[in-house]
Amino acid sequence: MYFFYVGFVPFIFLLLVGACAGRSLHPLPRKGGDGNKKPLQTSRPFNIAHRGSNGELPEETAPAYRRAILEGADFIETDILSSKDGVLICFHDVTLDDTTDIAEHKEFANRKRTYEVQGVKTTGFFSVDFTLKELKSLRVKQRYPYRDQQYNGKFPIITFEEFISIALDAPRIVGIYPEIKNPVFINQRVKWPGGKKFEDKFVETLQKYGYKGSYMSKDWLKQPAFIQSFAPTSLVYASNLTDLPKIFLIDDINIPTQDTNQSYWEITSDRYFDFIKKYVVGIGPWKDTVVPVKHNYLQTPTDLVTRAHAHNLQVHPYTYRNENKFLHFNFSQDPYAEYDFWLNEIGVDGLFTDFTGSLHNFQKWTSVDDSASKLLHKIALMISSYKKV
Ligand SMILES: *[C@@H]1O[C@H](CO)[C@@H](O)[C@H](O)[C@H]1NC(C)=O
Ligand SMILES: *[C@@H]1O[C@H](CO)[C@@H](O)[C@H](O)[C@H]1NC(C)=O
Ligand SMILES: *[C@@H]1O[C@H](CO)[C@@H](O)[C@H](O)[C@H]1NC(C)=O
Fold first, then answer.
1. Which UniProt keywords apply (predicted)?
2. Superfamily assignment of 2-92+159-388 in CATH?
C-alpha cells in the first residue's frame, strides 16, 4: 500500500493550490487560451467528467465542474438546453423536477405542462417555460438519494457561457464536452431571432470563446472540445458550421434515434459507420450495449469497439459509477477493476465517469509513462532492495 501514501501527498497539495486559485462565482469568460498552461494529456484514454464531479456534488453546477478539474478531468462534460428566452444552460433533464427545488417555488406552481418529448408524453416544469432570470432563482439538488445531500439548495443552474469560463479559467488546459441535448424538442419550443436554430446558437457560443479546429490541431489543443449528440442530423448540421470533433452518442438497443427514428442495429452497422465517420470522430455508446449484462454479470463483449476502431472511430462509453449498485459482479465491487477491464481489455478511448477522481487515480497509478509512477516504481525498488539487506 505504500504507493497510496506517497501518491496522496502531491494530490492534497494540488487540491490546496487549486482551492486558493478560486475566483468569484460568475466571472465573465475570457477569450482565447493561455499559452503557458500545462497541456491536455493525450497519451492515454480521456477522463471525461460526466456532469462534473456529480458523484460528489449536485450535477452540472459550478462547484461540480471545479471539483472535477481539481480531481484531474481531461474534459468536463455538460448537457446544453435552453431557457424560454433562448439562453443556453447546462442542465440534463428537459424538466426541472428531479434536480432542482422547483416544487418549493409556489410562484411557479401554474407552470406545470405536458409535452411530447421524443414520442413520450412528459409532465413537469420544463426549462423552456422559464426565463433565465427565473431559472437562476432555483437551486440544484442531488439526483440520487444515496449521494451526499448536504449541498442541495446551495448552487444555481449555470449558463453554457459560465461553464466555458470555468474551463478557460482552469490552471491547466481542460477540454469541454457539451451535448446538443434534445434538439428536436428544443427547436420546437424555443425560437431565436433571424430563424436561427438551437444548433446555430450552440456552435456560435463555442466560436465566441475561441473554440475551433479539428481533432488534435494546434487550435484544438489550445482549447479542446468535443461536440456530442444523440441526434445525427444535429451533428451533420453542426459539421457545416465547425470542424470541431463530434461524437455520435448511441442509446440503449431498444431506443430509436430522436430525429431520424433509426434503430440501434442500423446506426451501429458498418454501413452506417461508413456514413457517419465523415462527420464524427467517434461514438459514445451506453456501456452495457458494448458488453451485454445478464443477472448483473458481464457476457461476451460485442464487436462494437473492434468495428468502430476499424472505421477509425474512437469509442467513449458512458457512464462509470463507483457505487456498488452500478458495478457488475465480475468487478468484485471494485471500480478500479471496472476501469482496468474497459481500458486494458476492451480498449476504449475515453470514459464518461461520475467519479473523475477515481478514474484519474487509476490511470495515474497504472500508466507506465507517467513520471510520478516512474518515481513510485523507483521508490518501490529502493524499499524492496532495503528489505533484502
Ligand atoms: C451545408 O451548407 C451548405 C451551404 O450553405 C448548404 O447548401 C447545405 O444544405 C448545408 N448542409 C446541411 C446538412 O445543413
Ligand atoms: C419509427 O420507426 C418504427 C419502426 O420502424 C415505426 O413503427 C414508428 O412508427 C416510427 N415512428 C415515427 C415517429 O416515425
Ligand atoms: C463475468 O462473470 C461471468 C460469471 O462468472 C462469466 O461467465 C463471464 O465470462 C465474465 N465476463 C467477463 C467479461 O469476464
1. Glycerol metabolism, Glycoprotein, Hydrolase, Signal
2. Phosphatidylinositol (PI) phosphodiesterase (3.20.20.190)
Q: What is the pLDDT of residue 379?
A: 75
Name the nearest CA neighbour of 308 among 288, 291, 283: 283
CA of 263 to the centre of ligand 1 (A): 25
Task: Scan for cell 456552435, then name that residue.
Answer: 203
pLDDT of res. 34:
56
Angstrom distance (rounded) from CA 269 to CA 242: 26
Expressed in angstroms and rounded, the spacing between residue 91 Cα and the centre of ligand 1 is 29
pLDDT band at 18 (very low <50, low <70, confident <90, very high): very low
Domain segments of the chain: what residues? 2-92+159-388
pLDDT score at 10: 44
Whether the CB of 344 sits within 6 Å of ligand 1: no
- Kindly tell me the sign of the dihedral angle through the C-alpha atoms of 266, 177, 213, 313: negative
CA dist 84 and 140 (Å) reads 18
Atom of ligand 2 nearest to the CA of 261: 1
SS3 at position 126: strand
In this structure, are residues 210 and 223 in contact, taking their beta carbons and an 8 Å threshold? yes
